[in-house]
Amino acid sequence: MSDPLVIAIDGTFASGKGTLAKRLAAHYGLKHLDTGKLYRATARDLLASGGALDDAEAAALAAAHIDADTLDDPYLKSGGMGAAASKVSVYPSVRQVLLEFQRNFASQGAVLDGRDIGTVICPDATVKLFVDAEPELRADRRFRELRGYGEDVTLETVLSDLKERDHRDMNRAVAPLKPAADAHLLDTSHLSIDAAVTTAIALIDAVVNAKAQ
Question: Where, by residue number, does ATP bind (predicted)?
Fold first, then answer.
C-alpha cells in the first residue's frame, strides 16, 4: 500500500495559500486544515478567558483545549485575531501543543497550509509548496477581504501590519517561516486563483509520478 498523499503548503500571509489549499483538497479528495486557525482559536480562547497575549503558559493551556468544531468561527478571520495569532504563535509551548494535533490530522492524507508545515509539522510530506506574492499585492487582497467583512481599515494600515507580521513570522526563534529545502516555490503575484491551482496540480502530479517510478 502506498503512503497517504500529504500536501504541505507554507507561505506568507495573504499569499493565497489558503484558497489554493482548499481547491487542491477538493481536487485530490483530501481533508484540509488551515493550521493558522489553530493559532487564531488559541488567541480567541485565551482572550475570552481573560488571559493576556504575553502569557505563554496561559496561551499553551488555551491551545491544549481547542474545540476543533469551533475552527469555522467567522471571527477567526478578523484582522484582530490574525494579529493576536501571530503573537501567541511565537511561544514554543503553544507550537508543541498544536504539533500533535496537526500531525494526527495529516496521518491519513491531507492538505495542510500554514507557516511551518513542510519544515516542522510534516517534513516527510509527499509534496511541499511555498506560496508567496509581492507585499503590496498581498496587502491589497487582505484589505479587500477585511472591508468585505465590514472592518474599517485603510490599505496603508493593512500593508504596515502585513510587513510587521512577515518580519515576526520569519524571525521567530522557533519554526520561522521559510521554504523547506525541497519545497516548490509558487509566486501568485500575477496569477489568478485558477492559474495558481493549475500550476500547483501540475507540480504535485509531477512529484507524485516521479516518486512512483
Answer: 11-19
Q: How far is CA 5 from CA 17, 28, 29, 45, 184, in A?
A: 18, 9, 10, 32, 16
Q: With the C-alpha atoms ordered 113, 118, 121, 125, is the resulting torsion angle positive or negative?
A: positive
Superfamily of domain 6-206: P-loop containing nucleotide triphosphate hydrolases (3.40.50.300)
**Per-domain boundaries in the chain:** 6-206
Which residue ranges are tagged as binding site for ATP? Answer: 11-19
As annotated, the binding site includes: 11-19
**At how many degrees (to 10) do helices 17-28 and 193-212 cross?**
50
How would you write the pLDDT of the chain (213 residues) with one tens digit per residue?
478 999 999 999 899 999 999 999 999 999 999 999 999 999 999 999 999 999 999 999 999 999 999 999 999 988 889 889 989 988 999 999 999 999 999 999 999 999 899 999 999 999 999 999 999 999 999 999 999 988 899 999 999 999 998 988 888 877 888 999 999 999 999 999 999 999 999 999 999 999 888
